[in-house]
User: Fold this.
Amino acid sequence: MDTPQYPHVSSIDTPALVIDLDAMQRNLQRMQQFADQHGVRLRPHAKMHKSAVLALQQISAGAVGVCVQKPSEAAAMVAGGVKNVYVSNEVIALSKCELLARLNSGLAVQNGRISVAVDSLLGIERMAQAMESLGAQAAASAPMDVYVEIDVGQGRCGVPPGMAALALVLAISQRSCLRFAGLQAYHGRAQHLRTAAERRAAIAQVVQQVQHTKAALEAAGISVPLVTGAGTGTFMHEAASGVYGELQAGSYLFMDADYAANQADPAQLQFEHALFVKSTVISRSSTATDDRAVVDAGHKSHAIDSGLPIPWAGHGADWVFSNGGDEHGILRGSHLPELGDTVWLVPGHCDPTVNLHNQMVGVRGGLADGYVERIITVDARGALT
Ligand SMILES: Cc1ncc(COP(=O)(O)O)c(C=O)c1O
Assistant:
């Protein structure tokens, strides 16, 4: 049988979002092995890649399902065949709750489920109303799993740790269409604290707050089935705590430049950059005062909220990228690339970068001389609702 002829990486038009599939696969396996060895479930965050096929790849490696942040992201995952989706965020609009209730009931017949976080009585009320609109039998036969979110330091969503969670848990227990599934405790800012000591200290406090909340609930006769949370910067501490049963890390799969700027922790797994923007030099200028190469990738092709992209280390160069606006990036340094040359960039922040693209080009065999194995659709691109 003839070997299929895959296009060479040089044929990828630019700017393009490219996944190094070999590096991604190694990241995926490292994280799953870590979770398995530590006896915790892995539920990777799919808000990062927004792609059902990548979610299915994570699940077939051992993940219990995926997290998303928005009901429309959940719908995109379910449409792509993912059967276990947790919306790790608050949902208030009744129409959105109804969407989740419908998705949950559709998945129930396939042994799947949707679950959701809450931090208010109104959120619980709306979710119950949406579930009841399916009819009493449907609602009772496949109740919605609900996690009560506590604010463990992020200062975003969540009730304060301790007794405040009790009122929500009791309200959930009074609804036969809802089931208290546990606590959501995620500290986003802790992920990006630069030193290993700062991250360790932040999560030590998080764990105390979770323990305090669990104890308050247990004193009221309520057991907490699961604590879920953690991200790429701190998951090893949550896993070691003995309190968390599920890790929600997402960025480990692609590993962006911002995460790479964290000081390495000896307790931390190392992940490789697997997401790149392929760009081309479209203008070159060498004068007595300025030497620069301009590439065709600006901030319409990569997000800049967590810093500018960095040139791929594989170029072996000292180039510094500066912002050239919507469609341009400017490189300065020694031995700059020439007109028409390819420059690979590592985005500063993977999640919003992915959301700028319709597709990701999956490359096998390395960026320098690999081939295009497959195109991966960003199914939940623009799924913001
Ligand atoms: C609730 C929640 N869990 C988990 C994550 C995953 O974090 P990361 O992609 O940094 O691993 C995020 C990311 O923002 C999040 O908001």
The chain has a mean pLDDT of 96. Residues 163 and 216 are 6 Å apart (CA to CA). The chain has two domains: 21-258, 275-377.
